[in-house]
Each structure stands twice: as C-alpha cells, then as structure tokens.
Here is the input.
Amino acid sequence: MTALAGAGVVVAAGPLWPFQEADVADNAAMVARFDGSTMWWAFVTQLSFTVAAFGSVLFGAGLKRRLERQCPVGSLVPRAAFLGMVLTGAMSLAGCGMGTEAFHLIRKRAASDPDTVMAAVGQLGTYGWLWSGLLLTAAALVVAAFRQGAVARWIGVLSAVFGLLLAVTQLTPFQYMALFVGVPYLFVLGAAFAWGRRVPA
Here is the structure.
C-alpha cells in the first residue's frame, strides 16, 4: 500500500512540473504553464502521501511483529525496523500537509504571487519525498539476515543494496530522491513478506 501510494506521488509529479529549462529563472513563466488540472494533481499528491503515511506505520507494525517472532529476545532489530517506517510515515504526513497550500495557491494562481505559488509547489515536491527513514529499516533487516538469521539472506542483500542507495541520497543534495529508491524497495519487500514463507504465531 505504501509503495503504491509512493508510485502515485511519482505519477502526479509530472503534471506538477510542466516546465522547460528556460522557465526556471522566471516563476511567473512557470506558473503560466499550469492549467485547470494542475491543482487536482496537487490533490492526488496529498491523498497519496496520506495513504503512504498510514501505510508505512501499519507495515512497520507488521514487520516489527514478524521480526520479534524470529529475532533473539531483546534484539533491537524489530524496533529499529519499525522506527524507520515511522520516520518514513512522518515525512509523508508532512508532505500531505504541503498539499493543502499548494492546491489553493494553484487554484487561485491568477491572483497569487508566482513566487509564493512556486515555493509551495517546491515544498510539495520535497518534504514528503524524504523517505530516508527506510535506511534504518534496511539496516535492521541486514542485521536480521546476516547476524540473526531472522529473514532470508536475499532480503539482507536487497536491503544492503537499497540501503546504500538511500545513504547516497542523504550524502548528496538530492535527499528527495529517496522516494525513487524507497518505492521499488517497499514493493519487493512487501511482496516478499506477503507471499513468502508464513511465520507461525
């Protein structure tokens, strides 16, 4: 659910950024490229971030319960994996909040200051995309796989690869790119836990 919502954000982002390179220095030119549907794409973004926020927490809770059954008693891994998902959900919720201002400013763009409109759109395209909290979840699953044998080793490899990519987004001025890494990671991770071997209660 979280990954699908994240994919929805990516799809909605296209119509929210219909600009050409020459427009970047002129906010009025950027706003002029918006049409009547643009505000609804901001609304889709808001809804998608809302689903992603609550979906992240629910997935994290389920992951924590699963890991608690398989990790050694007292291990910090289940809690760390859960907190990574909570951080991801918190940033998605922040992104959701940016949708309200962006929606109304785009709707009233003819009477709004173009600089203010583009500032709101810029925030909408930044805050909720910071899914770097998944780095904590990925690190926890690496430990679970290779140190504790609590999940399959291929999940550990997958988490190591995507964790490295997430770390790269945090070490460069492209933190919002974490969404592009997080969506495929959660798709595969969710499928693995949904259709993989069941864990006895």
The chain has eight helices and no strands. The mean pLDDT is 91.
